[in-house]
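To illustrate the input format used throughout this study, we show a single complete record. The first block contains the structure-token representation of the backbone; no residue identities are included at this stage. The design step must infer an amino acid for every position from geometry alone.
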């Protein structure tokens, strides 16, 4: 420090300054630097007067322990230092429930496809679109040459399996009498097993095509091949689609009908970024003019087109109130609330980096209290203070004039005070 003063004094001498004048100016600079320190992290307490609060338009609202169906901002007391410019005669209320819109969709297990394992020509259609059907009900009858070939293949394999089994029984008897060798018995046993597996394969193919056990046994007994295949519904429900016509040729695997099962439906709702952050799996939704639904999934990604998040809910009970592709509106009526949290207007929340704060009114002014956000409504948000005792139900928090408070909190304002401090330091040095 002494070396710097010596160099500065030499500089002033070269410039024609007297030593006393240089010392005086240097003293003013040192005093000013002591009065105006380097800007540090913002202090949590913001000292602000009643006049400053009125000029900045600062208003407060009380933190609530619970949200009424129609909550409103609480007017401030006349004794508050900061003016709460809320009209006491204004009784307008704000509905703080979450409202979301979406479309009714079918769960993956709610739609059953009816198809045939063989191709053929549609001879008859036994159902109509939107008709209620039971499991096993006939949907359509096909004329199929491939179906005849499948029946013939099963009969051949069944007869071969029967003959192989009879030969195995005969060889086992001969082996016991010592007439044949063991190798011949093992060969016969292997042939019988192969024939049995081949017959079972064809048997399962007939079952997959829709032929029942009784019909298959009857086929073996009568050996009556039929080119007509009746395709049946695999589940009870409503025929949603019937994309076939009489005389139409269809290939194996083509859809014959779609049957909607009678079960709880899904609702795909579109939520904004703020709404999605406030919802949790298990929250209960009230569907307008219908029953309730429960949130079962929240998409981890955002739709790039409209920046919305997909929220999926499922009916609590399948009462038939909702229809597929129906546009509905849902209201959040139940959610998980973190213990110890309070509800404040969403406008009270202030972001600073990755942290969230609210400005709580006290006797000295306002204090920036760090909080964590929990579930919320459309205009209200549940928060919990990270410091004990600084935020509770009934605490007044700033809801307007936030920009002025944040500027003072970050130390961005009041330049006149700094200039006055420098002038005072200079005067004291003289």
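Output of the design step:
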């Amino acid at each position: 420090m002494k070396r710097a003063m010596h160099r500065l004094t030499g500089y002033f001498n070269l410039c024609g300054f007297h030593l006393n004048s240089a010392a005086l100016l240097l003293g003013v600079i040192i005093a000013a630097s002591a009065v105006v320190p380097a800007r540090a992290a913002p202090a949590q307490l913001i000292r602000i007067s009643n006049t400053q609060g009125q000029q900045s338009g600062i208003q407060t609202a009380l933190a609530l322990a619970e949200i009424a169906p129609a909550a409103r901002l609480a007017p401030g007391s006349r004794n508050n230092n900061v003016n709460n410019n809320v009209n006491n005669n204004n009784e307008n209320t704000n509905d703080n429930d979450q409202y979301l819109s979406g479309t009714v969709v079918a769960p993956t297990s709610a739609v059953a496809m009816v198809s045939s394992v063989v191709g053929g020509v549609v001879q008859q259609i036994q159902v109509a679109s939107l008709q209620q059907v039971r499991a096993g009900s006939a949907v359509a009858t096909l004329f199929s040459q491939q179906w005849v070939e499948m029946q013939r293949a099963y009969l051949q394999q069944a007869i071969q399996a029967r003959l192989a089994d009879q030969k195995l029984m005969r060889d086992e008897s001969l082996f016991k009498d010592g007439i044949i060798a063991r190798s011949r018995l093992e060969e016969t046993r292997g042939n019988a097993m192969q024939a049995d597996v081949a017959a079972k394969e064809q048997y399962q193919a007939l079952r997959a095509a829709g032929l029942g056990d009784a019909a298959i046994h009857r086929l073996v007994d009568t050996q009556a091949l039929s080119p007509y295949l009746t395709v049946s519904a695999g589940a009870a429900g409503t025929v949603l689609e019937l994309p076939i016509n009489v005389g139409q040729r269809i290939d194996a695997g083509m859809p014959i009908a779609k049957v909607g099962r009678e079960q709880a439906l899904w609702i795909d709702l579109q939520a904004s970024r703020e709404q999605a952050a406030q919802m949790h799996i298990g929250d209960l939704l009230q569907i307008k003019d219908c029953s309730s639904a429960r949130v079962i999934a929240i998409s981890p990604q955002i739709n790039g087109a409209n920046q919305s998040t997909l929220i999926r809910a499922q009916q609590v009970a399948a009462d038939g109130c909702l229809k597929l592709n129906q546009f509905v509106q849902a209201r959040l009526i139940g959610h998980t609330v973190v213990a110890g949290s309070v509800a404040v207007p969403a406008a009270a929340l202030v972001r600073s980096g990755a942290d969230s704060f609210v400005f709580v009114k006290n006797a000295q002014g306002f204090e920036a209290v760090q909080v964590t956000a929990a579930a919320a409504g459309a205009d209200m948000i549940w928060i919990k203070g990270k410091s004990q005792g600084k935020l509770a139900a009934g605490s007044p928090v700033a809801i307007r004039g936030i920009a002025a408070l944040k500027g003072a909190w970050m130390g961005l304002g009041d330049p006149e005070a700094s200039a006055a401090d420098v002038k005072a330091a200079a005067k004291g040095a003289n």
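Structural context for interpreting the output: The chain is about 30% helix and 30% strand. Residues 14-41, 69-95, 415-430 have pLDDT under 50 and may be disordered.
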